[in-house]
Specification:
Layout lengths: L1 H12 L3 E10 L5 E9 L5 E7 L14 H20 L13 E7 L2 E7 L15 H17 L21 H10 L1 H16 L4 E3 L8 E3 L6 E3 L6 E3 L2 H11 L2 H25 L6 H26 L8 H20 L1
Antiparallel strand pairs: 1-2, 2-3, 3-5, 4-5, 6-9, 7-8
Length: about 325
């Protein structure tokens, strides 16, 4: 397959020569790889090829080797190809994504030839973040959510994010023993997020590792659109903040970061001449921030009960959300 991929790259880019530069990473559970190729004789100096080739033997790093897990992964790559074919071109410079030059599928095998963001000056990655880095990513999310506000998720996930309740029944079973109260509230949490009148497209895996930085104050680009779909924007915001800040920083900066995100979202919607009632949207989504956080916390406690993100801040938010739901049930 490697020779045919290289021939495909040459045909698509018009280059005269191609060299394997590096394997950037292997895909989760051995489902393929992401490779950088250097090119000669064309307009591009390099490209990124994402090659999905599901293994015959399943090898999940945490042991989730089920048919459900396999089918979820296969659909995620179908979603990603649909995203690049039909949606990605609508993203602005304020929510930069790589250009996709070609997508080919052969059964469950997928080849995506994409722009090399390193060559486009988005070459920096972060393990630790400054306040400017966090704001840059929140700006990206705000503009992304604004562009796709109230978008129908055609050929995408009906409910975006990789931890969505309907795709995680195995993890939910584990949660029954780990946290019975959260287990009992799981469906209500999911329903609350779906009930928001302000649905957009969410990235679905907006962690720090999926953002490529262009330098201080120069913005970011995002990659990995396997789990893009409909949802409340707070799913992305809560998940992103939890991916890069520890529990003390999460609690100390919650209000300031939400204020910043909503100011960026207002500006993006205004620039796009949206007629939505922004004040109503903000009120709704602020109310759902803790719910979205708890939704991911629900997944994490079932998937990896000892994970570092399961900390006192997350537990407090989850307890408050579950208590509120119990109170609502009592009132009903």
């Amino acid at each position: 397959m490697n020779a045919s991929i290289q021939a495909m790259v040459l045909r698509v880019t018009g280059a005269s020569a191609i060299r394997h530069c590096e394997t950037i990473q292997k895909l989760w559970s051995g489902y393929g790889s992401i490779v950088r190729y250097e090119l000669d004789g064309g307009a591009l100096s390099s490209v990124i090829v994402k090659h999905v080739a599901p293994p015959k033997a399943k090898d999940h790093p945490r042991g989730w080797n089920t048919d459900i897990s396999h089918e979820r992964k296969l659909k995620s790559y179908q979603v990603e190809t649909a995203w690049y074919r039909h949606y990605a071109s609508r993203c602005s410079d304020s929510c930069r994504v790589p250009q996709c030059f070609n997508v080919e599928t052969h059964g469950d095998e997928v080849v995506m030839i994409m722009e090399d963001l390193d060559a486009a000056d988005f070459s920096q990655r972060r393990n630790q973040v400054s306040v400017f880095d966090v704001r840059a990513c929140l700006t990206w999310l705000a503009h992304f959510h604004a562009i796709f506000m109230q978008e129908a998720p055609v050929d995408l996930w009906e409910s975006g994010t990789y931890w969505h309740l309907e795709t995680r029944p195995d993890e939910l079973k584990v949660l029954a023993n780990e946290d019975p109260a959260l287990y009992a509230a799981a469906e209500r949490i999911d329903a609350k997020l779906k009930a928001s009148a302000y649905q957009t497209l969410v990235h679905g895996d907006a962690k720090l590792a999926n953002f490529c930085f262009a330098g201080a104050g120069q913005g970011v680009a995002a990659v990995d659109f396997q789990y893009v779909g409909a949802g409340c924007g707070m799913k992305d915001v809560a998940y992103f903040i939890g991916s890069c800040l520890d529990e003390v920083s999460c609690e100390a900066n919650e209000a300031k970061l939400l204020d910043f995100y909503f100011s960026e979202l207002r500006a993006a919607l205004t620039a796009g001449e949206s007629h939505l009632d922004f004040n109503a949207l903000e009120t709704d989504w602020r109310r759902l921030y803790a719910v979205a956080w708890t939704d991911f916390h629900r997944f994490l406690k079932g998937w990896s009960p000892g994970h570092w993100k399961i900390h006192s801040y997350s537990e407090r938010l989850a307890w408050e959300v579950c208590a509120q739901l119990l109170e609502e049930d009592t009132c009903d």
